[in-house]
Amino acid sequence: MMKPLLRLERRAEPSRVMRLAAPLVAVLAMLLTGGLVFALLGQPPLHALELFFVEPLTSTYGIGELLLKATPLGLCALGLAIGFRANVWNIGAEGQFTLGAVCGGGVALFAADALGPLALPAMLLAGILGGMAWAAIPAYLRTRFNTSEILVSLMLVYIAQLLLSFLLHGSWRDPAGFNFPQSRAFDDRLLLPLLADGQRASVAVLFTLVLAALAWVFSSRLFAGYRMLVAGQAPAAAAYAGFSERGNVWLALLISGGAAGLAGICEVAGPIGRLQPTISPGYGFAAIIVAFVGRLHPVGVLLASLLMSLLYIGGETVQLELQLPAAITGMFQGALLFYLLAADLFVGFRLRRATT
Amino acid sequence: MITGQFAAMFAAMVIAATPLIYAALGELVVERAGVLNLGVEGMMLMGALTAFAVGSLTGSLALAYAAAALAGVMMALLFGVLTLTLQANQVATGLALTLFGIGLSAFLGRDFAGMPLHGIEPLRIPVLSKLPVVGPLLLHYDLAVYGSLLLYAVIAYVLPRTRAGLLLRAVGESPEIAHALGHPVQAVRYLAVLFGGATSGIAGAYLSTALTPMWVESMSAGRGWIALALVVFATWKPLRVLLGAYLFGGVTVLQLHAQGLGIHVPSELLSMLPYAATIVVLVLICRDPKTILLNQPASLGKPFHPDA
């Protein structure tokens, strides 16, 4: 029988170089795959890749769009990364995003007059609390009844979307809206101020930066963050040290739920400006990829959210310019995560020529 | 006609349960081998698209199902290479498989979106389906429905009663010991994962050729995830998967027939039922930690590599 020429050997210590190089390798592999897909679709690959990845960055408006789409991705992913580090798998950020939009939007629609100048802060707060409340359900069920937070948080995505649709087909519908299932547009004073004229990104970009700083402090400077890290990397050690698993689950889900809720309200109090049945092109799911590509580290997540945002914008550009389907974005996203997971092998292992 | 309505609801329940049975039984085999594949939804969608495309291009339902199974196997192979050979995290890879499947099927399926499936007749049992009472109630389904029962019977026999089933369970309980005894752990896990891919693909094919004969982006609407929940709900036992799937089929039908039964609840709230029911049954079954500890394959989700 032929012996394999190469074999895997576990490294004595995980390679730091490979940990940082793996995302870059994954991006390169994704670009190559992208070029191949474009070629198969009968497009000159370099031109298409340039349209996809470079063209959007050449104008102020393009940069604004990049930040606009990176914001919800970054907010969601920063929260998710904290949980993933502790092996708490909240994959329902999309639902928490929706609930944040519903709760914040509810304040905008029904309490804005009474709140006066406090209306916008109240909307943001309601958004955060809404996302937290939605994430509290899997947290409670996991800690009390031992149910998988993966499945519960995911089921709640569908329920959240149906809830939004129910409200918009019912009492929240704009009476003057020609029967479209959407709410009335929010007043201008209920919308987040824009970063600069001539583009659409709002001060939500700054929230993302603040949250990234907080996430960094939390995970590398606070004891609670350390406990979660230990729980993720060495569950047995965490149990032996008496670190509470319940505490970790609650903390991870409340933080990620609140962040996703904030992303949701920032989206409807920003570029959308009202509640409507579809408020996200899957930001909450794409944020899972962002968290992994960003190595679950706040700075990495910020960079990865810009990359993922570029994938969305690039998808729209090639749809307009080359009449290619925008769904190409989803394929790029999935491929990127696959390549990353594959490249991660070399963090813990190295290839050795087999010796007989 | 009360019996008429009952027969219609019973049939609708069986049909709604069928894709869940395929997907959940396949995932059960995968998990009994110690591998957690969260990519069921993605594999189902690729199966659904492939079946629709092949079905509408060739007009052959058999080819459509075969192609869908193959598509599921290809997706599962990707998962297998990443998690079994390359040792990637199973949870993350499964999520990636689902996201990839959603994206890829939406991308490849753009030309088929919204088209109805023409010219394909469901395959039925000849003669017997014309019998009175039993005929309409039990014998008039398309063959895929009986296929799901056959699949159950095979798995319910092989897992506890054959050497192959014992090996599969041994690999899922303790891959280290199975490896030390000289059993091919990796090969068994690969086969299990590919089998799960094939059944997920078939589940998808049932969606796009029988349940709602058309292709729509993300048409599985969380059924892959419900199938995953069913495996937990069934405490990794085939019979309970079957019963659980019919229970869910019943919930779905309740949602469709509620208006007819005089229950006036907005459709969005009724549509929440299967998802809410999933959460409720998970709580009921997981409430006692012993139930899970005693039944869950001991190495579920834990990576194993013979060289390492």
Describe this structure as you would to a colleague.
The complex is a heterodimer of chains A (356) and B (308). With 356 residues, chain A is an all-alpha fold. Chain A has one domain: ABC transporter involved in vitamin B12 uptake, BtuC (Orthogonal Bundle), CATH 1.10.3470. Chain A is 70% helix and 3% strand. Chain A is built from 15 helices and two strands. Chain A has helices spanning 16-40, 45-53, 60-85, 93-110, 112-115, 119-145, 149-169, 204-221, 223-233, 235-240, 245-272, 283-293, 298-322, 328-343, 345-348; strands at residues 6-10, 349-353. A two-stranded antiparallel ribbon of chain A has the order 1-2. Chain A is globular, with a radius of gyration of 22 Å. The model of chain A has no long low-confidence stretch (mean pLDDT 87). In chain B, helix 2 packs across helix 10 (223-233) and helix 10 (223-233) packs parallel to helix 13. Chain B has 308 residues and is an all-alpha fold. The longest helix of chain B has 31 residues, at 2-32. Chain B is globular, with a radius of gyration of 19 Å. Chain B contains 14 helices and no strands. Chain B has a domain at 18-221. Chains A and B meet through strand 1, helix 6, helix 7, helix 12 and helix 14 of A and helix 3, helix 4, helix 10, helix 12 and helix 13 of B.
